[in-house]
């Protein structure tokens, strides 16, 4: 397998395992074209990573694409992690260290079956929110309301 094909497989596996990208495919925040837009990004990513000289710029490009094209804002650290993996993989490709790139590819996790994930929603009001709510209710009771 050529180095370029190996890197393409590496990029695909990163995005296939990335929860944010998988949620985009499942939720379709960009409408009917979500899959097409995500596939287009994955296809172009090897060339983008090859041209970008700075990991932070790569983070910004990915973040902007997800925000602008996929209507998705990623609030965790995963964009930085993805950019770091992509940048490191490209450095291995440029150094012609294909054995290490293959090892990295094989060590990447596969995404879990999201249909088997249990939804975990935790709603917990802080004490200050509860106090504010109670004081707002009390002030409503104390106010005189005139109705005409």
UniProtKB/TrEMBL annotation:
The keyword rRNA processing applies. InterPro entries: Pre-rRNA_process_TSR2. Keywords: rRNA processing. GO terms for biological process: rRNA processing. It comes from the Eukaryota. Pfam families: WGG. The keyword Lyase does not apply. May be involved in 20S pre-rRNA processing. Belongs to the TSR2 family. This is Pre-rRNA-processing protein TSR2 homolog. It comes from Clonorchis sinensis (Chinese liver fluke).
């Amino acid at each position: 397998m050529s180095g370029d094909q190996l890197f393409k497989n590496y990029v695909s596996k990163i995005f296939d395992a990335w929860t944010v990208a998988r949620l985009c495919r499942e939720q379709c925040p960009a409408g009917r074209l979500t899959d097409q837009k995500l596939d287009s990004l994955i296809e172009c990513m090897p060339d983008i990573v090859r041209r970008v000289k700075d990991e932070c710029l790569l983070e910004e490009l990915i973040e902007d694409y997800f925000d602008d094209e996929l209507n998705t804002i990623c609030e965790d650290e995963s964009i930085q992690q993805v950019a770091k993996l992509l940048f490191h993989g490209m450095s291995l490709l440029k150094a012609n260290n294909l054995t290490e790139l293959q090892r990295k590819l094989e060590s990447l996790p596969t995404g879990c079956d999201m249909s088997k994930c249990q939804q975990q929603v935790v709603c917990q009001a802080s004490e200050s929110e509860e106090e504010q709510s109670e004081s707002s209710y009390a002030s409503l009771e104390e106010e005189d309301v005139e109705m005409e």
